[in-house]
Automatic annotation (TrEMBL):
It is a multi-pass membrane protein. It comes from the Bacteria. Its main location: membrane. It comes from Candidatus Defluviicoccus seviourii. This is TrkA-N domain protein. GO terms for biological process: potassium ion transport. Gene3D superfamilies: 1.10.287.70, NAD(P)-binding Rossmann-like Domain. The lineage of its organism: Bacteria, Pseudomonadati, Pseudomonadota, Alphaproteobacteria, Rhodospirillales. The chain crosses the membrane at residues 20-37, 49-69, 81-102.
Amino acid sequence: MGSGGQRVTFIVLRFMRGPLLVLTAVYAVSMLGWAMIPGAATDDGTEPPLSLFHAFYFLAYTATTTGFGELPHPFTEAQRMWATASLYAGVIAWLYAIGAIVRLVQNPHFQSVLAERRFTGAVLRLPGSFVIVCGFGNTGSLLTRGLSDAGIDTVILDRDPDRIAAVMLRDYRVATPALCADARIPDHLIGAGLMRPNCRAIVALTSEEEVNVKVAIAARLLNPAVQVITQATRPEFVEILTTFGPDVRVIDPFQTFARYLGTAVHGPVIHMLNEWLVGAPQANLAMYPEVPQGRWIICGFGRMGRCLRDAFAALGIRTVVIDPTISETEAKAPDMVRGRANQTTLQQAGIEHAAGIVAGTNSDPENLGIVLNARAVNPDIFLVVRQNRYRNQVLFNAAAADLIMQPNLVSARRIHLLLIAPQLRTFFRHVRGYQLRGEREALDAIVTLLHDRIGTAVPRLWTVVLDAGRARSAVELLQRGLPVTLGDILRDPSDRSGTLACAALVLRSGAEVVAVPPEQRRLAEGDEILFCGSVSAHRLLDATLNNPYTLRFLVTGADRPRGTVMRWLMARSRRHTRRSSAACQ
């Protein structure tokens, strides 16, 4: 892909070589004839032929059907006969050339090369960091939308031309170059910007796990510094990928969904906190569903169903599984029911006394049918339904289940958070610790802090690094020895007694990592802080960290004059005050 210009030139010359030779031959023969055929007699008795310039001029304006007439002198009969032959030959040559041009433009290989060239140029023009997404399926499209909303450029590779065409129709907020290409080919990855220093990460989300593994291997070999996130479920592939080091993250959509659902059932507060942080619609920290405790029914025992049962067992939740593919040996167990999930099998599973049910098959119509049957037998049961296709959203909303879970959306959100806020894992590990230890008051205090600070605004996550490039004024104050606390930079510049609509979730200072750091915490150069807040708070905080006057005012409470004249007047006033004090003494 790096020689796209040369490839375009080669294809053009290959298609147009014959027509160009024919046109050249026709024009050369015609001009030679004009130069040899005698013209009209002049006053001195000579019969000069047309010059080569006049011959070319005549052929040029007749080829464009302009028709200026016989120039520079009227033609003889012989010249008119030659003009007729030259014009017909030129028309035939031009028809041949135009046909070749049409075939060239319609040639799929030529269109592909042009698309690669435009794609490579668009990637080179990306000003900031970007993420390469290989595979624009359900998970890939959801991830791209999330990255676009976060202001992160995305480069897309997919082998399906319909998906690439769909990218062009999306209203993304940032540049999103896309190419219909095989991500397994290293040249395509290089053309997508894998070797560029501003490549932030590469994410492999194709439907073929073997392709994902090849993309991860190629990325690791070509650019070891780039972060790699790949989707894989087969143990042999997971084993290969885990040997590449911590910079290669493996996402198992089934285990991710199972852990996510387990958190929703066992820790609804943490689930709602996660939903709110990723900006999920209707997520509200002040309201979250209370999930009943007790035995649960899992409908569907494929790979995802088995992951769900294991996740529930790890949380101490008893389950009963319903599935028609259960073997005869497994069906003998008391927590297994063989058959499809209808009212009969649901009653065999004890739905009348169950706390909740998970409709978790890979078929949306079957899951909706399970919801209707379960509600008919036990109207009060807690309903969790798996939605496999986004286009069925209207039907699932009409089903009015207590929780609607989309595996693709769950995976996309997890990858999204890994890209924009990798320190968020520390925050959730911290709040889960509160839950496991039964410290409900501490957990509620975090939720209350976020709710009071940010309110109904859509939360945004961002990381601030206290260095000279991203927090110039803060670094200058720290280097001068002036203590700066977390609470200082969170003050509202318009009202120093107020606070910005944001909160610090994680602070990393050297090897120390603190979740929900106190606002009395003193900051140091090089600290990394993960914030959550509104978009306006993000802008104000960034301005504060890079404005020496604003930051000094927030830290000390003293509003220093900014202009040269005002500083001179203030210094003069201080000198006058000192002299007056000395005279009085």
